# Entry
Amino acid sequence: MCKPTVFQKTYEDYISQIGNINFYNASEILGGVVRDNEIILPFFNKPYKISSKGIFNNFEKKADFSEAVVLSKYLLLCPEKPVNNNKLVSYPQFKDSSPLIKYFKDNAECAIAKHFSNNLSALKTAGKKLGGVLCPNIDAAYDLKLKFNPLPKIPIYILYNEAEEAFPAQCVILFEQSAQTYLDAECLAILGTLLFNRLKQTAETT
# Structure
Protein backbone atom coordinates (compact mmCIF):
# COMPACT_ATOMS: atom_id res chain seq x y z
CA MET A 1 0.00 0.00 0.00
CA CYS A 2 1.42 3.39 -1.02
CA LYS A 3 1.95 5.91 1.73
CA PRO A 4 0.19 9.25 1.24
CA THR A 5 2.50 11.98 -0.06
CA VAL A 6 3.14 15.17 1.89
CA PHE A 7 1.06 17.02 -0.70
CA GLN A 8 -1.86 14.64 -0.25
CA LYS A 9 -1.71 14.94 3.54
CA THR A 10 -1.65 18.73 3.30
CA TYR A 11 -4.57 18.70 0.87
CA GLU A 12 -6.61 16.42 3.13
CA ASP A 13 -5.86 18.61 6.14
CA TYR A 14 -7.09 21.69 4.31
CA ILE A 15 -10.25 19.93 3.15
CA SER A 16 -10.92 18.77 6.71
CA GLN A 17 -10.65 22.35 7.98
CA ILE A 18 -12.81 23.68 5.15
CA GLY A 19 -15.56 21.34 6.27
CA ASN A 20 -15.96 23.51 9.39
CA ILE A 21 -16.40 26.79 7.52
CA ASN A 22 -19.74 28.58 7.29
CA PHE A 23 -19.80 29.09 3.52
CA TYR A 24 -22.60 31.66 3.66
CA ASN A 25 -20.59 33.94 5.95
CA ALA A 26 -17.45 33.39 3.91
CA SER A 27 -19.18 34.17 0.61
CA GLU A 28 -20.39 37.52 1.95
CA ILE A 29 -16.81 38.51 2.73
CA LEU A 30 -14.82 36.73 0.04
CA GLY A 31 -17.24 36.65 -2.88
CA GLY A 32 -18.56 33.58 -4.62
CA VAL A 33 -21.88 31.76 -4.23
CA VAL A 34 -23.05 28.89 -2.05
CA ARG A 35 -24.89 25.96 -3.60
CA ASP A 36 -25.56 22.42 -2.36
CA ASN A 37 -23.17 22.55 0.63
CA GLU A 38 -20.31 23.93 -1.45
CA ILE A 39 -18.93 27.36 -2.21
CA ILE A 40 -18.17 28.30 -5.80
CA LEU A 41 -15.36 30.83 -6.21
CA PRO A 42 -14.18 32.47 -9.42
CA PHE A 43 -10.47 31.74 -9.83
CA PHE A 44 -8.86 33.37 -12.86
CA ASN A 45 -12.39 33.84 -14.23
CA LYS A 46 -13.34 30.18 -13.97
CA PRO A 47 -15.57 28.63 -11.29
CA TYR A 48 -14.03 26.29 -8.72
CA LYS A 49 -16.20 24.18 -6.42
CA ILE A 50 -14.98 23.83 -2.84
CA SER A 51 -16.45 21.64 -0.13
CA SER A 52 -15.60 18.90 2.31
CA LYS A 53 -15.45 16.61 -0.74
CA GLY A 54 -12.55 18.48 -2.31
CA ILE A 55 -11.68 21.30 -4.72
CA PHE A 56 -12.66 20.94 -8.38
CA ASN A 57 -12.43 23.13 -11.45
CA ASN A 58 -15.19 23.85 -13.94
CA PHE A 59 -14.52 20.57 -15.74
CA GLU A 60 -15.08 18.60 -12.51
CA LYS A 61 -11.36 17.84 -12.44
CA LYS A 62 -9.56 17.93 -9.10
CA ALA A 63 -7.65 21.19 -8.75
CA ASP A 64 -3.88 20.85 -8.88
CA PHE A 65 -2.00 21.26 -5.63
CA SER A 66 -0.95 24.89 -6.09
CA GLU A 67 -4.51 25.89 -6.97
CA ALA A 68 -5.86 23.95 -4.00
CA VAL A 69 -3.43 25.63 -1.59
CA VAL A 70 -4.38 29.14 -2.70
CA LEU A 71 -8.12 28.47 -2.67
CA SER A 72 -7.98 26.68 0.68
CA LYS A 73 -6.02 29.47 2.34
CA TYR A 74 -8.30 32.08 0.83
CA LEU A 75 -11.18 30.42 2.68
CA LEU A 76 -9.31 29.51 5.86
CA LEU A 77 -7.85 33.00 6.33
CA CYS A 78 -11.20 34.71 5.78
CA PRO A 79 -11.38 37.81 8.03
CA GLU A 80 -14.41 38.59 10.17
CA LYS A 81 -15.29 41.51 7.90
CA PRO A 82 -14.10 42.75 4.51
CA VAL A 83 -10.84 44.67 4.46
CA ASN A 84 -10.26 47.20 1.69
CA ASN A 85 -6.93 48.95 1.25
CA ASN A 86 -6.21 49.65 -2.41
CA LYS A 87 -2.75 51.11 -1.90
CA LEU A 88 -0.49 49.37 -4.43
CA VAL A 89 2.52 47.56 -3.04
CA SER A 90 5.18 45.20 -4.37
CA TYR A 91 5.57 41.65 -3.13
CA PRO A 92 8.63 42.35 -0.89
CA GLN A 93 6.52 44.77 1.14
CA PHE A 94 4.36 41.97 2.51
CA LYS A 95 5.00 40.46 5.92
CA ASP A 96 7.04 37.22 5.89
CA SER A 97 7.83 37.58 2.17
CA SER A 98 11.63 37.70 2.61
CA PRO A 99 12.37 33.97 2.05
CA LEU A 100 10.26 33.98 -1.12
CA ILE A 101 11.28 37.27 -2.76
CA LYS A 102 13.73 35.62 -5.17
CA TYR A 103 11.24 32.84 -5.97
CA PHE A 104 8.56 35.43 -6.76
CA LYS A 105 10.87 37.54 -8.87
CA ASP A 106 12.25 34.57 -10.83
CA ASN A 107 8.98 32.70 -11.35
CA ALA A 108 6.55 35.57 -11.78
CA GLU A 109 8.04 38.94 -12.71
CA CYS A 110 11.18 37.81 -14.58
CA ALA A 111 9.33 34.85 -16.09
CA ILE A 112 6.74 37.17 -17.65
CA ALA A 113 9.39 39.63 -18.85
CA LYS A 114 11.51 36.89 -20.42
CA HIS A 115 8.66 34.93 -22.02
CA PHE A 116 7.04 38.00 -23.60
CA SER A 117 10.21 39.92 -24.41
CA ASN A 118 9.87 41.62 -27.81
CA ASN A 119 6.25 40.48 -27.97
CA LEU A 120 4.20 43.14 -26.25
CA SER A 121 1.18 42.43 -28.43
CA ALA A 122 1.15 38.76 -27.34
CA LEU A 123 1.15 39.74 -23.67
CA LYS A 124 -1.61 42.27 -24.26
CA THR A 125 -3.74 39.74 -26.16
CA ALA A 126 -3.16 36.94 -23.64
CA GLY A 127 -3.82 39.33 -20.76
CA LYS A 128 -7.15 40.45 -22.17
CA LYS A 129 -8.23 36.85 -22.83
CA LEU A 130 -7.40 36.07 -19.20
CA GLY A 131 -9.67 38.89 -18.07
CA GLY A 132 -7.05 41.60 -17.71
CA VAL A 133 -8.15 45.20 -18.20
CA LEU A 134 -6.02 48.19 -19.10
CA CYS A 135 -5.14 50.53 -16.22
CA PRO A 136 -4.21 53.91 -17.72
CA ASN A 137 -4.96 55.58 -14.35
CA ILE A 138 -1.83 54.08 -12.75
CA ASP A 139 0.69 56.91 -12.76
CA ALA A 140 3.74 55.02 -13.98
CA ALA A 141 5.62 55.05 -17.29
CA TYR A 142 5.12 51.51 -18.64
CA ASP A 143 4.26 50.23 -22.09
CA LEU A 144 1.45 48.05 -20.73
CA LYS A 145 -0.49 48.21 -17.47
CA LEU A 146 -3.02 45.44 -16.80
CA LYS A 147 -5.25 44.57 -13.86
CA PHE A 148 -6.36 40.99 -13.18
CA ASN A 149 -8.78 39.60 -10.61
CA PRO A 150 -7.65 36.02 -9.93
CA LEU A 151 -9.78 36.06 -6.76
CA PRO A 152 -12.60 38.48 -5.89
CA LYS A 153 -10.65 40.26 -3.14
CA ILE A 154 -7.17 40.03 -4.64
CA PRO A 155 -6.54 42.04 -7.79
CA ILE A 156 -3.07 41.82 -9.34
CA TYR A 157 -1.47 44.50 -11.50
CA ILE A 158 1.18 43.87 -14.17
CA LEU A 159 3.37 46.76 -15.30
CA TYR A 160 5.43 45.81 -18.34
CA ASN A 161 8.11 47.59 -20.35
CA GLU A 162 9.27 46.21 -23.66
CA ALA A 163 12.98 45.59 -24.23
CA GLU A 164 15.04 48.46 -25.59
CA GLU A 165 18.52 48.64 -27.02
CA ALA A 166 20.33 48.86 -23.69
CA PHE A 167 17.64 47.42 -21.41
CA PRO A 168 15.89 44.02 -21.22
CA ALA A 169 12.13 43.71 -20.91
CA GLN A 170 10.88 44.47 -17.42
CA CYS A 171 7.82 43.33 -15.50
CA VAL A 172 6.66 44.57 -12.12
CA ILE A 173 3.77 42.92 -10.30
CA LEU A 174 1.81 44.89 -7.74
CA PHE A 175 -0.90 43.93 -5.26
CA GLU A 176 -3.32 45.96 -3.19
CA GLN A 177 -2.11 46.16 0.38
CA SER A 178 -5.21 44.39 1.68
CA ALA A 179 -4.14 41.23 -0.18
CA GLN A 180 -2.11 40.19 2.87
CA THR A 181 -5.35 40.01 4.86
CA TYR A 182 -6.73 37.32 2.57
CA LEU A 183 -3.61 35.28 1.73
CA ASP A 184 -0.23 34.68 3.34
CA ALA A 185 3.08 35.48 1.64
CA GLU A 186 3.53 31.94 0.33
CA CYS A 187 0.14 31.91 -1.38
CA LEU A 188 0.66 35.37 -2.86
CA ALA A 189 3.92 34.10 -4.36
CA ILE A 190 2.10 31.07 -5.76
CA LEU A 191 -0.57 33.37 -7.17
CA GLY A 192 2.10 35.27 -9.09
CA THR A 193 3.46 32.08 -10.64
CA LEU A 194 -0.04 30.89 -11.52
CA LEU A 195 -0.64 34.20 -13.29
CA PHE A 196 2.50 33.71 -15.38
CA ASN A 197 1.58 30.11 -16.19
CA ARG A 198 -1.89 31.10 -17.33
CA LEU A 199 -0.59 33.99 -19.45
CA LYS A 200 1.91 31.63 -21.07
CA GLN A 201 -0.70 28.93 -21.74
CA THR A 202 -3.16 31.49 -23.09
CA ALA A 203 -0.54 32.97 -25.43
CA GLU A 204 0.42 29.51 -26.70
CA THR A 205 -3.17 28.65 -27.59
CA THR A 206 -4.00 31.98 -29.20
Summary: Residues 6-76 form one domain.
